[in-house]
Amino acid sequence: MGLDDRKLAVLRAIVEDYVSTQEPVGSKALVERHQLGVSPATVRNDMAVLEEEGYIRQPHTSAGRVPTDRGYRLFVDRLSRVKPLSPAERRAIERFLVGAVDLDDVVHRTVRLLAQLTRQVAVVQYPSLARSSVRHLELVPISTTRLMLVMIADTGRVEQRLVELPGPVPADDVTDLRRLVNEKLAGARLSDTPPLVQALVEEVPAELRPAMTTLSTVLLETLVERHEERIALAGTANLTRGGLLDFQGSLRPILEALEEEVVLLKLIGETEPSTTRVLIGDENEFDNLRAASVVSTGYGPGSTIVGGLGVLGPTRMDYPGNIATVRAVARYVGELLAQN
Amino acid sequence: MGLDDRKLAVLRAIVEDYVSTQEPVGSKALVERHQLGVSPATVRNDMAVLEEEGYIRQPHTSAGRVPTDRGYRLFVDRLSRVKPLSPAERRAIERFLVGAVDLDDVVHRTVRLLAQLTRQVAVVQYPSLARSSVRHLELVPISTTRLMLVMIADTGRVEQRLVELPGPVPADDVTDLRRLVNEKLAGARLSDTPPLVQALVEEVPAELRPAMTTLSTVLLETLVERHEERIALAGTANLTRGGLLDFQGSLRPILEALEEEVVLLKLIGETEPSTTRVLIGDENEFDNLRAASVVSTGYGPGSTIVGGLGVLGPTRMDYPGNIATVRAVARYVGELLAQN
DNA sequence: GACTGGCACTCGCTACAGTCGAGTGCCAGG
DNA sequence: CCTGGCACTCGACTGTAGCGAGTGCCAGTC
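The joint structure predicted for all components is written out below.
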């Protein structure tokens, strides 16, 4: 069944009013606040249709209407335009991100910036190792039987692992190992390394074989197979705005979900094309988040994508504004990464 | 004014009951649940005195008594014995911490373990750089004018910074720089490095001077002066247990405080002797946390202390249990660090 | 056929009165 | 110094009533 333009305008008005007032909106208030050009009674008829179609609902019989998840979906897809950022916001983004000394620093600043601009919970995934290439591998002797393996990725990520060698390895051998490993692996995408590492173990001189074997095990198991993803989070205090009306009274499930890296990664770390993704309420696969919406997108230097970032908040959120902010921040971060 | 033994027993009973039931406790319930050997009326008289002295109070005129912050303080100082951990808890700690591959991993596991055992918010400070020594400094060329400086500390921490060189530096010079820097700084406490770095810049051959100068700036400014502290957090969902009765209805101030690293560091990152510290309610210097208590202690390999860890929860918490758990976990972590 | 004004109806919210009961403070007596 | 008894307080809960925002429906108008 088709909805004519006016019904769509009514839906849009309901969403906008509800988002800003947080109260069910009635037909009378609607015609007063928006130039719909019709009477409340007409609006009521339209509302009845919208309700029948599942776009809005009444919390109680004698209350105004509230958008459903489906209503928000329609609003996002067809009724809203991405708001351009205000100059103040643009300046804030630049000011915030300039002067980051370090990948950690970039991620940290980004996540706080996002939380501050959107007034929601912000989530930023560190550049994924799976999509990084090896820039350099460093072996630092800790003792004769211990090495610290430091991997520097082209995305700026640095990971380290302690390697317990099967026996003592002299300093010269460590130098050889370092050279060999770098010759073979530097520049390779992390996902392409397994066969290379395999080859390394086989080609290596006999006396280095045992050390190289344990080294390769650590490398493959802790860096490649379970590719270590990291996540930064900020703005959880924003969940308490709207005083428990959002999230039907309990922050518990939300806070629990936010503690699970796996969940967050699923939310914002998707591969997908570079479009912005919006998940509304029960579209979400996690029960804990059925009262929340997520706006996320990928970021990376140039047009490649190395990680995701986004915000999470009540379904009653300012979608156009948040979408715009998330996109803008992702773009700036991408530029920042491209410079390094 | 002195409190006799029975009054103290009454206070202890009130604290214990209130902590477990979360409801104001009355005189009748008290004599039923504890073997005090006296009648409710007597208990009432004792309560009146305790209230006058500020150890307990009545939420409403016709309600039972609730401990005040001062009452908890007395309880913690004089009325409670540290609970020995159950074997199950000991096993949990060992099981949880065995198999950590990495300092990050240790800290991560520790903070989750603490949150799980105490059912409170857990906070763990990474080993402080200020109390670490330099184990090794690595310089990785990124381009001819860029280096990645990687510092590995004896505590296992690894920090990296991008260094923009004033001009191109050939590979051999980087090797020289690396050697010089390590000869001078390896083994030094980070806090002792400034004069050493100063000397380095002066001693270095003229052609390396500019590079060494920028290098030393980065080193001193980002690693020594503003000593980068890091913090891990877990268990925020535990704040919602006790359904908003704790924290007088709003998690907001607590969540805000937990987002401020500075605040957390002040809470758990104190120098102090190796005793366990308990901050109760308004003893806390931050207004946001006046409804919360913190139990914290230092940890480190052997008897030295390299960082702090602890838990944060409502003033109505199981102090003896949490103190025991915090201590035990700190001890295990210390042992773990000593092994590396 | 679409829109509008009018009207009866629903139902959550608030205020108010009344009851109940847990808990207290006090006092006289052991 | 402790205890049992007793009057009192006051929050929690219940039921009732009135208010008002908002609705659905219908007959009338353009």
